[in-house]
Amino acid sequence: FMERELPSSRSALGLVIVVASAIVYAMSSSGGIHVSTWAWALIYLSVLAFEMVYVKHVLNRLPMTTWTRVYYNNTLALTFCPPFMVLGHEYALLHTAALKLLEARVFSVVSLSCILGIGISFTGFGLRSLVTSTTFTVLGVMNKVLTILISTLLFANNSTPIGVCALLACIGGGTLYEQAPPRSQSRGAYGYESLATSPPEDVSEGFVAGLSEQGGSCQERQHSSRK
Protein backbone atom coordinates (compact mmCIF):
# COMPACT_ATOMS: atom_id res chain seq x y z
CA PHE A 1 0.00 0.00 0.00
CA MET A 2 2.72 2.50 0.98
CA GLU A 3 5.42 0.65 -1.04
CA ARG A 4 7.83 0.42 1.91
CA GLU A 5 9.81 -2.41 3.45
CA LEU A 6 9.04 -3.61 6.97
CA PRO A 7 10.88 -1.79 9.78
CA SER A 8 14.34 -3.08 10.61
CA SER A 9 15.08 -4.84 13.90
CA ARG A 10 16.56 -1.61 15.24
CA SER A 11 13.44 0.37 14.32
CA ALA A 12 11.15 -2.30 15.76
CA LEU A 13 13.11 -2.24 19.03
CA GLY A 14 12.82 1.55 19.14
CA LEU A 15 9.04 1.43 18.64
CA VAL A 16 8.66 -1.22 21.37
CA ILE A 17 10.69 0.95 23.77
CA VAL A 18 8.52 3.97 22.98
CA VAL A 19 5.26 2.08 23.62
CA ALA A 20 6.54 0.36 26.78
CA SER A 21 7.95 3.59 28.19
CA ALA A 22 4.69 5.44 27.52
CA ILE A 23 2.76 2.74 29.40
CA VAL A 24 5.18 2.92 32.33
CA TYR A 25 4.84 6.72 32.43
CA ALA A 26 1.04 6.48 32.42
CA MET A 27 1.07 3.88 35.21
CA SER A 28 3.41 6.02 37.31
CA SER A 29 1.13 9.06 37.13
CA SER A 30 -1.04 10.02 40.09
CA GLY A 31 -4.28 8.85 38.50
CA GLY A 32 -2.86 5.62 37.13
CA ILE A 33 -4.52 3.73 34.28
CA HIS A 34 -8.22 2.87 34.35
CA VAL A 35 -10.52 1.11 31.90
CA SER A 36 -11.93 4.40 30.66
CA THR A 37 -8.40 5.71 30.13
CA TRP A 38 -7.47 2.68 28.05
CA ALA A 39 -10.64 3.04 25.98
CA TRP A 40 -9.88 6.64 25.04
CA ALA A 41 -6.23 5.77 24.38
CA LEU A 42 -7.18 2.95 22.01
CA ILE A 43 -9.68 5.18 20.19
CA TYR A 44 -7.06 7.91 19.81
CA LEU A 45 -4.46 5.39 18.62
CA SER A 46 -6.83 3.99 15.99
CA VAL A 47 -7.81 7.43 14.69
CA LEU A 48 -4.18 8.60 14.69
CA ALA A 49 -2.94 5.56 12.75
CA PHE A 50 -5.69 5.93 10.13
CA GLU A 51 -5.16 9.69 9.80
CA MET A 52 -1.40 9.44 9.38
CA VAL A 53 -1.52 6.70 6.75
CA TYR A 54 -4.48 8.15 4.83
CA VAL A 55 -3.08 11.68 4.71
CA LYS A 56 0.25 10.34 3.44
CA HIS A 57 -1.63 8.36 0.78
CA VAL A 58 -3.48 11.52 -0.29
CA LEU A 59 -0.24 13.52 -0.43
CA ASN A 60 1.31 10.85 -2.65
CA ARG A 61 -1.63 10.63 -5.05
CA LEU A 62 -2.76 14.26 -5.31
CA PRO A 63 0.03 16.62 -6.39
CA MET A 64 -0.33 20.00 -4.69
CA THR A 65 1.94 22.71 -3.41
CA THR A 66 2.49 22.91 0.33
CA TRP A 67 0.61 26.22 0.55
CA THR A 68 -2.41 24.71 -1.26
CA ARG A 69 -2.51 21.89 1.29
CA VAL A 70 -2.35 24.43 4.12
CA TYR A 71 -5.27 26.39 2.65
CA TYR A 72 -7.38 23.26 2.17
CA ASN A 73 -6.60 21.97 5.66
CA ASN A 74 -7.51 25.21 7.42
CA THR A 75 -10.59 25.78 5.27
CA LEU A 76 -11.95 22.30 6.03
CA ALA A 77 -11.18 22.77 9.74
CA LEU A 78 -13.03 26.12 9.70
CA THR A 79 -16.26 24.42 8.62
CA PHE A 80 -16.41 22.57 11.97
CA CYS A 81 -16.34 25.78 14.02
CA PRO A 82 -20.00 26.90 13.65
CA PRO A 83 -21.55 23.57 14.81
CA PHE A 84 -19.28 23.38 17.86
CA MET A 85 -19.95 27.03 18.66
CA VAL A 86 -23.66 26.24 18.74
CA LEU A 87 -23.22 23.06 20.79
CA GLY A 88 -20.90 24.79 23.26
CA HIS A 89 -23.03 27.96 23.44
CA GLU A 90 -19.96 30.00 22.47
CA TYR A 91 -21.88 32.11 19.96
CA ALA A 92 -23.09 34.25 22.87
CA LEU A 93 -19.50 35.36 23.44
CA LEU A 94 -18.86 36.52 19.85
CA HIS A 95 -19.74 40.13 20.59
CA THR A 96 -17.43 40.23 23.62
CA ALA A 97 -14.64 38.56 21.68
CA ALA A 98 -14.99 41.05 18.82
CA LEU A 99 -14.71 43.96 21.24
CA LYS A 100 -11.62 42.40 22.83
CA LEU A 101 -9.94 42.19 19.42
CA LEU A 102 -10.05 45.97 19.23
CA GLU A 103 -7.46 46.09 22.00
CA ALA A 104 -3.90 46.26 20.67
CA ARG A 105 -2.49 43.67 23.07
CA VAL A 106 -5.22 41.11 22.39
CA PHE A 107 -5.08 41.69 18.64
CA SER A 108 -1.29 41.22 18.58
CA VAL A 109 -1.48 37.98 20.58
CA VAL A 110 -4.23 36.55 18.37
CA SER A 111 -2.36 37.58 15.22
CA LEU A 112 0.84 35.96 16.49
CA SER A 113 -1.02 32.73 17.27
CA CYS A 114 -2.47 32.70 13.73
CA ILE A 115 0.98 33.18 12.20
CA LEU A 116 2.45 30.41 14.35
CA GLY A 117 -0.46 28.11 13.47
CA ILE A 118 0.06 28.66 9.73
CA GLY A 119 3.79 28.04 10.18
CA ILE A 120 3.16 24.77 12.02
CA SER A 121 0.73 23.67 9.31
CA PHE A 122 3.18 24.57 6.53
CA THR A 123 6.17 22.81 8.10
CA GLY A 124 4.00 19.81 8.96
CA PHE A 125 2.79 19.28 5.39
CA GLY A 126 6.28 19.96 4.05
CA LEU A 127 7.76 17.30 6.32
CA ARG A 128 4.99 14.82 5.54
CA SER A 129 5.80 15.03 1.84
CA LEU A 130 9.44 14.09 2.55
CA VAL A 131 9.15 11.24 5.08
CA THR A 132 6.94 8.23 5.69
CA SER A 133 3.83 8.35 7.86
CA THR A 134 5.53 6.31 10.61
CA THR A 135 8.55 8.62 10.67
CA PHE A 136 6.30 11.67 10.92
CA THR A 137 4.34 10.02 13.75
CA VAL A 138 7.49 9.15 15.68
CA LEU A 139 8.78 12.72 15.33
CA GLY A 140 5.45 14.11 16.52
CA VAL A 141 5.36 11.79 19.53
CA MET A 142 8.96 12.66 20.44
CA ASN A 143 8.05 16.35 20.26
CA LYS A 144 5.17 15.83 22.70
CA VAL A 145 7.26 13.65 25.02
CA LEU A 146 10.01 16.27 25.10
CA THR A 147 7.42 18.93 25.94
CA ILE A 148 6.06 16.80 28.79
CA LEU A 149 9.60 16.16 30.08
CA ILE A 150 10.45 19.87 30.12
CA SER A 151 7.16 20.68 31.85
CA THR A 152 7.77 17.93 34.42
CA LEU A 153 11.30 19.10 35.20
CA LEU A 154 10.34 22.79 35.43
CA PHE A 155 7.08 22.59 37.36
CA ALA A 156 7.39 19.16 39.03
CA ASN A 157 3.65 18.56 38.87
CA ASN A 158 2.99 15.02 40.15
CA SER A 159 6.33 13.87 38.73
CA THR A 160 8.05 10.73 39.95
CA PRO A 161 11.57 9.40 39.25
CA ILE A 162 10.02 6.45 37.43
CA GLY A 163 7.99 8.78 35.23
CA VAL A 164 11.02 10.92 34.36
CA CYS A 165 13.06 7.79 33.51
CA ALA A 166 10.18 6.53 31.36
CA LEU A 167 10.13 9.80 29.40
CA LEU A 168 13.89 9.62 28.86
CA ALA A 169 13.60 6.01 27.73
CA CYS A 170 10.80 7.00 25.35
CA ILE A 171 13.00 9.66 23.74
CA GLY A 172 15.86 7.18 23.53
CA GLY A 173 13.63 4.65 21.78
CA GLY A 174 12.57 7.29 19.29
CA THR A 175 16.20 7.99 18.37
CA LEU A 176 16.62 4.30 17.45
CA TYR A 177 13.93 4.47 14.79
CA GLU A 178 15.06 4.80 11.16
CA GLN A 179 12.86 5.25 8.13
CA ALA A 180 12.03 2.06 6.23
CA PRO A 181 13.50 2.00 2.70
CA PRO A 182 11.29 1.71 -0.40
CA ARG A 183 10.57 -1.72 -1.77
CA SER A 184 13.02 -2.74 -4.48
CA GLN A 185 10.27 -3.81 -6.85
CA SER A 186 8.61 -0.38 -6.61
CA ARG A 187 11.48 1.22 -8.52
CA GLY A 188 10.83 1.69 -12.19
CA ALA A 189 13.16 1.98 -15.14
CA TYR A 190 13.97 5.56 -14.20
CA GLY A 191 14.65 4.76 -10.54
CA TYR A 192 11.75 6.80 -9.17
CA GLU A 193 10.22 5.56 -5.95
CA SER A 194 6.84 5.17 -4.29
CA LEU A 195 4.53 7.45 -6.25
CA ALA A 196 5.01 6.02 -9.70
CA THR A 197 7.40 4.01 -11.82
CA SER A 198 7.93 6.79 -14.32
CA PRO A 199 9.54 10.22 -14.02
CA PRO A 200 7.34 13.21 -13.10
CA GLU A 201 5.40 14.86 -15.89
CA ASP A 202 7.33 18.11 -15.71
CA VAL A 203 10.65 16.24 -16.00
CA SER A 204 9.50 14.14 -18.95
CA GLU A 205 7.91 17.10 -20.71
CA GLY A 206 11.04 19.18 -20.22
CA PHE A 207 13.15 16.34 -21.53
CA VAL A 208 10.98 15.96 -24.66
CA ALA A 209 10.93 19.72 -25.22
CA GLY A 210 14.71 19.83 -24.94
CA LEU A 211 15.07 17.07 -27.53
CA SER A 212 12.72 18.90 -29.87
CA GLU A 213 14.71 22.13 -29.55
CA GLN A 214 17.97 20.30 -30.16
CA GLY A 215 16.49 18.55 -33.18
CA GLY A 216 15.27 21.84 -34.62
CA SER A 217 18.62 23.54 -34.11
CA CYS A 218 20.43 20.63 -35.78
CA GLN A 219 18.15 20.85 -38.82
CA GLU A 220 18.77 24.61 -39.08
CA ARG A 221 22.54 24.11 -38.93
CA GLN A 222 22.35 21.43 -41.64
CA HIS A 223 20.23 23.69 -43.83
CA SER A 224 22.62 26.64 -43.41
CA SER A 225 25.67 24.47 -44.18
CA ARG A 226 24.09 23.30 -47.43
CA LYS A 227 23.58 26.92 -48.49
What does this structure look like?
The chain is an all-alpha fold and about 230 residues long. Helices cover about 70% and strands about 0% of the residues. It has helices at about 10-30, 35-60, 65-80, 80-85, 95-100, 105-130, 135-155, 160-175, 200-225. The radius of gyration is 26 Å and the shape is globular.
Features:
227 residues, mainly alpha, 9 helices, 0% strand
Number of helices: 9
Largest sheet: none
Strand content: under 5%
Compute the number of strand runs. Answer: 0
Shape: globular
End-to-end Cα distance:
60 Å
Cα-atom radius of gyration = 26 Å
Write a short abstract of this structure:
By secondary structure, this protein is mostly helical. The chain has helices at 9-28, 35-61, 66-78, 81-87, 94-100, 104-128, 133-155, 161-176, 201-226.
Task: Please describe the topology of this protein.
Blueprint: H1 9-28, H2 35-61, H3 66-78, H4 81-87, H5 94-100, H6 104-128, H7 133-155, H8 161-176, H9 201-226
Helix pairs in contact: 1-8, 2-7, 3-6, 7-8
